[in-house]
Amino acid sequence: MNRFTLKLFVAVACLLLDAGVSGFKMTTCGPHVHRLTCETGVINVTSAFFGRADIGTCAGAKEPGEVTNTQCSLDSAMDLVTRRCTGKKVCELNANCFDHDPCPETFKYIQSTYTCIPAIHMIVCEQSLAHLECDNGKTIHVIGADFGRRDHVTCGFRRDPALVRRLDCTNPIDFPGQKCNRKSNCEFRASKSVLGSGCAVTSQYLELAYTCQ
Ligand SMILES: *[C@@H]1O[C@H](CO)[C@@H](O)[C@H](O)[C@H]1NC(C)=O
Predict the structure, then answer these.
(1) In this structure, which residue's CA is closest to atom 2 in ligand 1?
(2) How far apart are CA 102 and CA 90, in angstroms?
(3) How much distance in Å is there from the Cα of 67 to the middle of ligand 1?
(4) Is the overall model pTM greater than 0.90, yes or no?
(5) What's the gap in Å between 77 CA and the centre of ligand 1?
(6) CA 68, CA 142: separation in Å to the nearest integer?
(7) Quick one: which of 76, 18, 71, 87 has its CA closest to 49?
């Protein structure tokens, strides 16, 4: 690549980024873990599909009968993936997370598209105060909030191991958006009495992302 083509390449790449075109597509076959991740910014889910829309995807060594139904799609897939993933840096789920199976005889896949958008991302340990703030006359817009636990380490300092054992507790909550949206600053306690105890016998933490608009 000579210098001119390199420059052109960089210019085109920047244009694409500016236009917000850069996105990711993740396809996961059958029961396996569907993982979305953003190295910079937070996840913004733009589409999500659970079912089968063509014969080829995830066909592998499947029997023809398992891949011929290409009209299978769960309507609520987008809602579920959006609620679980939007505003996080990492999000994992699998086929068991969907509330029902739209076509039991068919071998299905999960397919999501998402972008990574700039946002203020924070983790607040249980019982600490969440403090959201925007300067210059801008106001808070909460993108996503979850009060649960998805790893052993976060907010685990000197905690009883029994309280940080769970790593499957996703508990999306609306409270931060209801309380803070359109304000310039906002504070509340990340406690079970305020945000709900979604995960039994577990020390929970709040993961939240917001922008200033
Ligand atoms: C995030 O995704 C939604 C569609 O799910 C879209 O309407 C919205 O504009 C996106 N936000 C940004 C900042 O790209």
Answers:
(1) 46
(2) 27
(3) 32
(4) no
(5) 17
(6) 42
(7) 76
